[in-house]
């Protein structure tokens, strides 16, 4: 009996996963320091922009939405695959989610944090951002519920709250394990965080239902959030924006980019933290298939959109799509086509799908491609709408580029802190499926 | 009636005579009702292609949800051949489309007929081949599933864009094709629901636990698809409503303007969304085969009414012709379903 | 005096639980501690799914009705036409009420869970007995079924 206990695979899971929470090494500290410095730099640039006004960005008539809104859409999109992996795959009873769900859920929250900053950065007078919320004022004015920007406020903040609950609920039993295996001040912290979870039948019984219901709520939510983001564009009557396929197309794009980001984050994590036993090539292959599938949906949307630009007599639509592919920003368009539509086709080949370095490289390029996609959609349509007299081009300024770099640094900083704060894999679920 | 001993030759003779009957009903001089064949065609292409698509998807993700109904769903693949023949019957009526007066690069009769016939033929061939390989447990079935799904998406998109949407030329909606693909898969799951009602005895005797789980899974999937359907419907409606452009709003006004149009539109909304959503929200709704089967039938009915709503503001319909055509096809479908023992190859998992 | 049975393997635990159930024990005389959720336990002890779904349902309903009601109140309290849309524009209002349905549904479910699972528990935080990866049945002495 004693021997079997020493080799107990369940104990081994706990030991391996909690080993990640050890005292941080020099490399980790260096990475954190670098990210923190970049974040500080970005905050400085933001301060400069608040002080001098939005003129320091490249935004100018007719392009009043530029890199900031691109970043907003990009980061909201990144958030989506976290919920997909944790909620949708849970409902479909896909086992492989177990190796990704914690990292992906954390990613959702961090991506939303970063995304939520951009509408604020984009505001000229950020200190009155609370005008966006419906609250009783002495002017008796309410927000305009017919405006997609207000839908955004509701959708993104609801998404943040629900994701936080989902993340925390998923953590609960693991926090109790951490409480048992640590001592001293860390034990006390984990004890409080775990709310005194003991794993009694009643707790598990309600917990199980809670998780199911949260997954069932999160699934339609995730689809609606990016649909609403897409309607920021699609409800307006701008060529290239006003098209009905935008909602499902954006949702697929969000999952596509988010899945790529999961690979980008989890592959180094698996390597550096030596978690090969728990995150296997099979798991990556399953994720790669999601990447391929969503890439096909996006390519379908590109095809349909471009086809219909030339279907009727709408010269404005036709001109917009001609401009996208051959105009001022054409190189970005072709980068987008290569990264989002052509490159993922290689994943049809089983050997490439199972080669992790290749998959990692694809995921990096997909991130680039999806950022380009948002830029192409936003800037091209604004630069060339109906009236040639009002056409213009846009180039991001150094401030905008610096703040974009800051957003990536902030995202990675939060992720690095997460690695050392809570168990990075769901120990309970891994043990359950042993 | 448990099963029917039907030789393939007899079955295909039956299928051809049904096509003949439909041709007679359509062109036999009933006068009005030029759109009946289009409604029938669009509806059955949705069911026939959707049933096989559902099996292809579940094969690819190795899901067990509908695995036990695989044979039953695959037995409907010959209907795709029927749809192919019906499309041939529809070609003389192409002059009814508003674009036929001024053909363009994409919308001209030879290309229209050519691309659609090619895709329908390819789809039915791939479906037949896939059914064979998949039932035999062949490893190449996965490759065929991918190919079939690609053709399925292309074909259903063209059903939407070419057959239905061009009735309203130059109005267009880019979502239409994807919407039809989702509806076809929805129809496939609804067929699975109907099949699980028809086979309730047999399955319950074999293994009550699996039968219960299978029923619940079908209910859950129908619930999910009812929400997805509503979401896509709303996505299209909202943009047309919000844009408020004359050429776009016109499309909605023609389908909600009169009392009868409004009633029909409400009917398919209720059938495709409200009823399945409300029934399958509760756990009890997913327990009884009769409830699952009944709601599945309502969903199929909703999809049918939706097709009527697409067509009738543009082309006139004749209720009698519509009825005869669909009964004939249901008859062929029943023959395929109950004759599956002799029509389909023997499966690896026994029958 | 409570009797504590500790098992390392799930199968042994479930077998013993079935025996206990046969002997007339029910959920009321037994306290179980599990390292993860076992649906089999609920089947053996015939436990009902519990009232959490009502929290989800009524939370969602309140979110929808409350959200729609609030939006209607705001547009009627200061009737201002914007964007050439009618004052009561149902499609966009449905959207926000739908989001609020999910928000309040999730919050209510979470709060309901905390209430039903008796969390946070001071006793648990203070350091109750921990069984780790073992499956545990605790039989309270005073609560043994009456067996003549």
From TrEMBL, chain A:
InterPro entries: NrfD-like
Name used for this protein in its record: Ni/Fe-hydrogenase 2 integral membrane subunit HybB
Residues that span the membrane, as ranges: 28-48, 68-92, 104-133, 153-178, 210-229, 249-269, 290-311, 331-349, 356-377, 397-418
Similarity comment: Belongs to the NrfD family.
Lipid bilayer topology: Multi-pass membrane protein
Compartmental location: Cell membrane
Cellular component aspect of the GO annotation: plasma membrane
Principal localisation: membrane
Origin: domain of life: Bacteria
UniProtKB/TrEMBL annotation, chain B:
Segments traversing the membrane: 41-61, 73-91, 111-131, 143-165, 171-199, 220-242, 262-281, 288-305, 317-338
Superkingdom of the source species: Bacteria
Keywords of this entry: Membrane, Transmembrane, Transmembrane helix
Protein name in the entry: Uncharacterized protein
Source species: Desulfuromonas soudanensis
UniProtKB/TrEMBL annotation, chain C:
Record has Transmembrane helix as a keyword: yes
Keyword list, A-Z: Membrane, Transmembrane, Transmembrane helix
Keyword presence, Membrane: yes
Taxonomy, superkingdom: Bacteria
TM helices/strands, residue ranges: 54-81, 93-116
One Pfam family hit: ActD
PANTHER family: LIPOPROTEIN-RELATED, QUINOL:CYTOCHROME C OXIDOREDUCTASE MEMBRANE PROTEIN
Protein name: DUF3341 domain-containing protein
Source organism: Desulfuromonas soudanensis
